[in-house]
Here is the input.
Amino acid sequence: MAQDEFLLINKPTEKKYFAPAVSRRTAAIKKAKSNKWYKLFSLLVFFLIWQYISNLNLEHNWFNPVFLPSPYMVLETGYSYLMKGTLFIHIGESFYRMISGFIIGLIVSIIIGVMITSWKWFDNMVTPVLNLIGPIPVLAFLPMFLIWFGIGEGSKISLIAYATFIPMLGYVTDGIRNTDPHLIRSAISLGATPFQVFTKITFKSALPNIMTGMKASLAFTFSALVVAEMMGASSGLGFIIIDSKNWFKMSDMFLAATLIGLEYTIFHGILSALENVILKWKKEGISNAVED
Amino acid sequence: MGVILTNVFKAFEEVEGKPKYVLNNVHLKIEDGEFVCILGKSGCGKSTLLNLLAGYLKVDAGRIMVNGKEIDGPSAQRGVVFQQHALFPWYTVQQNIEFGPRLKRRKDARKVAEELIMLVGLKGYEKKYPGSLSGGMAQRVGIARALANDPQVLLMDEPLGALDAMIRHNMRCEIIKIWEKTKKTIIFITHSIPEAVYLADRVVLLKDGHIEQDVRIDLDRPRDIKSPEFQEYVDIFEKGLTENEAGLLIAE
Here is the structure.
């Protein structure tokens, strides 16, 4: 290599590098926090665009303004419900049905999941049946549930629980089956009884899967909630939609739909927060394939 | 007392109607407090032997006695250290080590764990989760966790196999230190000849399912890897491993 060529390659660079104030990782965590505000901002933009389109429509008369009420009108409707004192009754009723059905479905799926993974004969007996009825849409079962459990809360909550149970079950059994056998071996060698192996190893190992399942099943829970309330209820957000359809109250429909969306978002957020607390141990170690 | 294996047979499959023995009529007697290395190439049955001792597998025929009692499944009396450390990822270092004593509802679980953390040199890492530990540190936790139960026998399945050369050497010295302090019977599986000669009181060479050699290492500790006596032992086992075979064995 010629001398001048060598000098060219090793020429001191103009740019100087200094020790950073924070690590790249800390900076990434900070950035992730600011992402939360961006997400909130996106909701704001959505409502503003909706309002703007409604306003334009009022001016230019593209279609009947009744078909697309503005967010402001929806808010006004909400306010009138609030004044009548029925807003929180409807939200509360829906929330009560959703949470009861969700929790019952979750608990039953864990119990059945444990039974399926513990006893081969139970697996052989139950799984083919579940594979047969699982894919049938919940809506198809509503009339049966109404006849079996009456028109009260029983039929609604059981339908919601069923809609949660079916998708949850796969997540529970997969989570339990994927437990690393080395962990089970080491627990037994440390003196754990079969019950302790389940509570301290298998269940904890399945928890990430169960949390994912809870978030994935939530959408099914909510659709079952709305279906149940639309078909045979005198309260709740689903009831508002079907009732306002009969009276052609578009704002009320939009109010109920928006509230369902909001309730879903909030509940999903609660589950995510819970996941962060319960699965804290997953946060350490490698978090992404390549740092960006 | 100690660990006694008599006529141990173990097969996993049949070839042409006959069982293909991974362990074929193995006899072995290990004294209390002895440090024994089971040496062999992969597929020689050394891991199967350890799994039998741990109780994860059951003998097809024969008997394994530990302290006068025939083994029947895994037990807290026989601590196991795994090659892939097998720490519980949802527990911190401290909780992992406390696991055994807590199962027994021992009041001093915390104290036991703290002492072991000092012994394996992990002070300051108590609250860390295994996911954030390096291989060597994780293996130290694995050893401490097995020791926390105060087992009679410590079974180690290539615990240093996944570590790099520098850490391996440090860990060997520490295992010797721990063994001298705790006076446990240690059965240590390895495929590295120098490692076996460095660590063990006695090296058992396993080949095609039977014991090929059973040699006592008469060297004072700490042993010098570079000394001619050390090399002599290494040569013995190299010969034992490659006998009747073409090609040379490349040590480590």
Summary: The two ends of chain A are 37 Å apart (CA to CA). DSSP finds eleven helices and no strands in chain A. The mean pLDDT of chain A is 88. Residues 163 and 221 of chain A are 6 Å apart (CA to CA).
